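Reading is simple: each integer encodes one residue's backbone shape. The lines below illustrate:
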Amino acid sequence: MTSKVCFIGAGNMGEALIKGLLQTTSPSDIGVYETNTDRAEYISKTYSIILLNSMVPINDYRICVLAVKPQVINTVMDKLKEFLDPKVLLISIAAGVKIDRIKGFFPKNKIIRVMPNTPALINEGISGISFSENCTEKDKLLACKIFEKIGKTLIIPEGKMNALTAISGSGPAYFYHLADVFAKAASSMGLSYNDGLLLISQTMLGASKMLLNSTEHPSDLIVKVKSPGGTTEAALNILQSQGLSDIITKSVLAAKNRGEELAK
């Protein structure tokens, strides 16, 4: 990774990207503009990267990552549009902010929209990536390389971004909720909450790795766990009779629909 990268904003996700880039990029090739003084000093001292006092030097960088909250991105873009060079590749990780909205401020720039998720903080995330029409294959490869530093990537049409957000963007919270429910169930059966949480967390991790490393369908993997009349079948019968599939489908549709509402 040799292209110089500048970040506007350095919250948790911005920091995760900085840490990932430093695996192959010199600190002198990474800059950050952060208006929170304490946060800016922390990032600069922790990672020895360049701290920018204004947005003006951003044109010295090949890539600019907009790592700010959706609520303030319009204000940031309004300031940035006054001087940003059209050659700078813009990458936005602001949730729900469409490429066309960014294009309204920067009509000549190439724009990439990315939806990462919080496991990126431990380099186990997955990022959905969409591109403006003027992005080249080189631009696409460059973006993928950046986000592969913090996990896996999936290139999708922007029209499917809300669906992706409902599954992977919000997804970690669903698993945390399930883990909490399982841990509480464990404690109701005599195990401690913490032991139950350890058991279900490791089980989720192992099962996820099996899904990722196997060519088998999930239903085939289920067959390998359950036996006729056994404990697994007894539990699955309850899950199916209580309509778990419908609950999950309705939940992710609610997340997708809310994403579409927020994007208007």
